[in-house]
Amino acid sequence: METVKNAPIPLISLKDCSAGSEFIIKRMVYTEDGTGYVEPPHRHDGYSIGILLKGSGTFYLDFEKKHIKAPAVLLITPEQVHKHELHEDCEFVTVYFTRDFLLTESESMLSCWECVFSNNKIQLSHDHVQELLSYTDIMMREVRDNKPRKSLIIRNVLSAFITACGRISVDEHKDEHWTSETTQVNMFRQFKVLVDNNYKQQVQVSDYANMLHVTPGHLNDMVKSVTGTNAKFIIDTKRITEAKRLLYWQQHSVKEIAWHLNFEDDGYFNRYFKKHTGYTPATFQKTIREKYN
């Protein structure tokens, strides 16, 4: 796969490695050769869903380290930095797709689907595996046979596949945000998508209220009714999460990270980061790397 240049963390472009396609599905088998397989940290410019059918490994997502054992599903959003270390013979099915691939159908539904990705690891039962493979088998057959209108069929089956992952996740995590369809929850989903896409440039609640055509007070009330927090907390959490990713994965100075995240200067970034985490950026970087490395 090719990477997009000048990204602080390597960004793998789906279109570059698939002749312009916005959707990839493949089944892979990795055989242990005594050395293990370590994937360098990177991001995708699309979503990925992997079904681990056999084997085990270590899954690094942002600054968290998780051990995974088949059968399980791994869900990764475009902004998340990750790498895998496979420990033994592994077999998995992986689906990659861009946001635009599903926006062709419905942006509001994608906002709902993104809630599914909040649970990055889902353990599966045998019945769950068979259910999910029934969808991936159809998508793989459509790609292979290359019949007319295959993209329409793949989009609809992919939608059902993601919904099935969400249904399984709800059973495990009891995610009420995914199952609810109230006006407040739907607006919150839209707000979260906007924050994810604009957090570097737009940092005030009023910025997002304008995008959603509501008042800042109404936006805060809506977020509080859904999450118990306010809109500024959601914005700040996104900015801090991205700062933590850069501090953990990259060899950049605090000044460079502050510039990348559009802070006025590194002094303000230091104060902002410590206010929200209790640590200076340098202390956090040292502590988290000692913990997971």
TrEMBL record:
Record's keyword terms, sorted: DNA-binding, Transcription, Transcription regulation
Domain HTH araC/xylS-type: 189-287
UniProt key word Transcription regulation: yes
Top-level taxon in the UniProt lineage: Bacteria
PROSITE patterns, alphabetized: HTH_ARAC_FAMILY_1 (PS00041), HTH_ARAC_FAMILY_2 (PS01124)
A Pfam match: HTH_18
Molecular function (Gene Ontology), one example: sequence-specific DNA binding
Positions of transmembrane segments: none
UniProt-recorded name of the protein: AraC-like DNA-binding protein
SUPFAM superfamilies: Homeodomain-like (SSF46689), Regulatory protein AraC (SSF51215)
